[in-house]
Amino acid sequence: MAKPEELVFAPLGGVGEIGMNLSIYGLGSRQQRAWMAVDLGVSFGDEEHLPGIDLIMPDISFLEKERKNLMGLVLTHAHEDHFGAIIDLWPKLKCPIYATQFSAALFEAKCAAERNAPKIPVTVVPSGGRVDVGPFSVEFIPVAHSIPEAHALAIHTSAGTVLHTGDWKIDPTPTLGAPTDEKRLRELGEEGVIALIGDSTNAVRDGRSPSEAEVARTIVDLVKAAKGRVAVTTFASNVARIKAVAAAAKAADREVVVVGRAMERMVQVARECGYLDGVQNFRSPEVYGHLPQDKVLALCTGSQGEARAALARIANDDHPEITLNRGDSVIFSSRTIPGNEKAVGSIINNLVMQGVEIITDRDALVHVSGHPRRDELRDMIAWVKPQLLIPVHGEALHLHEHAKLARAAGVPRVLVIRNGDLVKLGPGDPGIIGEVPSGRLYKDGTILEDSKSRAVVERRRMAFSGCAFVAIAMTEQGELADDPEVDLVGIPEKTREGEPFDDLVFDAVVSTVEGLPKARRRDADALGESVRRAVRAVINEHWGKKPPCLVHVLTV
C-alpha cells in the first residue's frame, strides 16, 4: 500500500519579524515534493544599521534548488511586505504567479514604473475563486484589510486543508470591498482544517480593531472644521482611506490634489479596478497654488517619513508646488512603523515650526490597523477549529502571545517556529522535522547581496568609525620615493589635545616604513599590512576607535 503524501510548511521570511513574508508548502515524500510559495515580500533597510541598503528580501536559495518542483507563487494581497520582492527575485524562479485582479493590476503598474523590469506574467483568479497549483487546490477567501482584495488562502491537499490567513481583520462595516467571509470560514471549520497559519501582528492588543467607517467619520469632521489648507498623509495602498479623504473633501467643498508618485499610481489602479467609482476626479499639484486656501486638500505620500516623499519635501519647504503655512493642518492618517519614529518626528517638528497644526492618531481616530486584535483572533479560531495553529507575521512577543491565546482557546496543538523550520502538518502528529536554508538578501542600489557581503559589513564599520586611506610609493631598493599620501574620511580632524590626526597618521606611516628591514619594505603585502596595523593602532590610541584602513603600495 502506497504511503500517504506528507504536507509540510516552512516560513522563509516573516516569522520573528514583521515584513519580508515568504511561506512555502510542500506535498509528497521526503525524497520528492511539489512546492508552492505564498507571498514574496520585502522589509526596509535601516540607515543606522544598514547604511545604503534600500530593501531586505528573503533568501530564496532553497527554492532556486527546487525550481523544477516549484508549482507557483500565490499572492494574498499587494502590500510591499507581501509582494515587493517579486521583480528582483522572480527571474531566479520563473514560476507561475496567481493573484486577484487588483493585486495583478497594481503589480503591472509597479513593473511599468521600474526601469528594465522583466516581463512577469500573472494569472488572475477571481476573488472567492479557486485555482489548482500543481497538487494544491487554492481557494481565495475574502478578508478585510487595509488594501483592496486581501485574501486568506484555503489550501486543499490530499493530506488535509490548511488555512493561511495572510493579513486580515474583522470589520463588519468596511468602507470598501467585502467584509471577512465568516460564512465560508465557518464552513471550512465544519469540513476540517488541519492547520491555521495565522497573522500575529496585533496579538498583544485586547479587544477588536475599530472599523474603517469610524475613521471615515472622524476625517469628515476634521476636514470640515479646518480653517486653512489641509494635507492628509496615509499609506498609498489604503484605497479605503483615500476614498474617505475624498468624501471628506467633498463634504467640506474642497478639491483633492494628489501629491506623490506612489499615490498617483494607486489612485490610477483603483479607478481602473472600479474601487473609486463615483468618487470625484482629483487634481494635479500644478493647480494647488491657484485654489483658495479653504478649498483645497492635498493627499500626500510620506506618512512614514520617507526622505524623498511629498510630505518630507513640503516640511523642508522645498516642494516645487505645495506649501503649508501658519494655520494650515496636516492629518497623519497612519501609524508610524517601528524604526521610522525619528524620520516622522523630524517632519512633524519641521511642520510645527512653520506654524502648521498636526493631528495624529494620538489626537483623534484617524487611523485603524488592518490586523486582528485578540478578540478577532479568538473568533477566527472558533470559526475554523484548527487542529494545529502556527503563529506567523510577527516578532517574538507577538508569536508568543498568539500561541498563548490559541492554547487558552482550546487549539489541540500550537507550534511556535522560526524562519527556516520545516514543519510536518499532516498526516499524523505535526512537528518540526528539519530545516531549510533561510536568510536575508540586501538590495544595494541595483545589486543583490547576501547578509555576509563584504560591502554590507564594511559599510556598517565605516559608518561607525570612518576609514583611513594611505598610499605609499616605494623604490625598488625599498626606500620611500615620496611622502606618503594620507586621506582620513569620517575621522575627527584633531585629537583631544588638539593635534591634527593627519599629522599623527603621517608620522606613524613614515616611522613604520623606516623601522622595517629592507627585505620587508620590498614586499608590498608585508609592508601594507604593517602600515595598516600601525595606522589603526595610533588612531585607536587617540580616539578609542579602530577604523578600517586601506593601504596602497606602489613600486616606482
UniProtKB/TrEMBL annotation:
Residue ranges constituting the Metallo-beta-lactamase domain according to the UniProt record: 21-219
Swiss-Prot/TrEMBL keywords: Cytoplasm, Exonuclease, Hydrolase, Metal-binding, Nuclease, RNA-binding, Zinc
Highest rank taxon of the organism: Bacteria
Record-level Gene Ontology MF annotations: exonuclease activity; metal ion binding; RNA binding
CDD domains: RNaseJ_MBL-fold (cd07714)
Pfam families tied to this protein: Lactamase_B, RMMBL, RNase_J_b_CASP, RNase_J_C
Keyword Lipid metabolism among record annotations: no
Name this polypeptide is given: Ribonuclease J
Lineage: Bacteria, Pseudomonadati, Pseudomonadota, Alphaproteobacteria, Hyphomicrobiales
